[in-house]
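Researcher: Here's the sequence for the chain we discussed earlier.
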Amino acid sequence: MKKIITVKNLQKEFEADRVLQNITMDVHENEILVLLGPNGVGKTILLCCLTGGIMPSQGEVLINGKSPELMEIKKQISFLLQGSMVINFLNGKENIDYFTRLHEKSTDKWKELVKKFEIEDELTKIVKNYSGGMKRKIELIIALTMDTPILIFDEPTTGLDLSMIRVFHDLLLKEKDKGKTVILSTHNPINAEIADRIIFMRGTEAGSEIITSDTPQGLLDQVPRIIRLTASTAKINQRIENHLLGERLFEKGGESIGFISDDGSTLNQIKSIVADENPKCEVKMESPSYTDMFNYFTYIWQKE
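Model: Thanks. This is the structure I predict for it:
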C-alpha cells in the first residue's frame, strides 16, 4: 500500500516542555487511521505538524514526498481542529458559505450533509445560540464538503450523540470508498470501530510517544482478558485488586472491571474471595472491548 505521509523522528518542544518524543509513523493511501489516546498527549500538536501548521523542533514530515508547508500540499487536505471554528455572529448557512469560499476544493455536498446531520431547519439561526453539538455538526459539514484526497479530523465526535456518531462514521466509510485517506484523533474508543489501523499515544516524562500500532483486532489481541463483577462491594474490590494486572479496577455502570492473567489460577482466587464475601456477586471472564483496550494501554500497559 502506498505511503502518502511519512513522519520520521519527530519531536516538538515549547521552550523547556517536550510535547512529542520520537514520533515515527506512516499513513497509507486510502486508509482510515485513528490516533487514539487520552487527553493531553499531543494528538492535536501532531496533527498540526502533519498539516504544516506547526513546525517540528526535530524530525521530518513529508506528504507525497513534499513539505506540508507548500501550498500545493495544503490544497490536498481538509483539516478540522478540535476548537470551535464557526463564527458566532453568523448563522449556520452563512458559516458554510464563508468557509467553503476559502477552499478551492469546496463542493455543494453540504446540501446533502445538512440533511444527514439533521440540521437543515437550523441553518437560518445565529450560531451563537447553537449547542456545542450543533456547532460541531456545522464544522463537520464544512470539512466534509471539501473534495480533497486527505481528510484530517481532531476529536471530531466531541458533542455528538451516538446516532450522529454513526452518521459521521458512515460518511467517513463512504469517503474511503472513494479512495480518500482519513486521519482522526480521538480519546473516544467508539471511533476505533471504523479504523483500518490504530496508533495509540501515551504521555511519558520525556514527552508523548507512540506505544503501539496495529489493526483494531490486532490491538485487542494484545489486551489481556477482563473480569467483570456485578453487585460487587468496596471490600471485595479491595481484596481482589492485588490479583489484577496493574492492581486496578475500573467502575462502569455499577460494574467493576479488571485485567487478569489468563492462567486460570487468578480467576479461581478471585471467585473464592467473592464467594467468601458476597455469593450474590457475579464474576465473568470476557474478551476486552475497545473501551477496555483504551483503559489497558492508558493505565496498565508497561514498556518491557
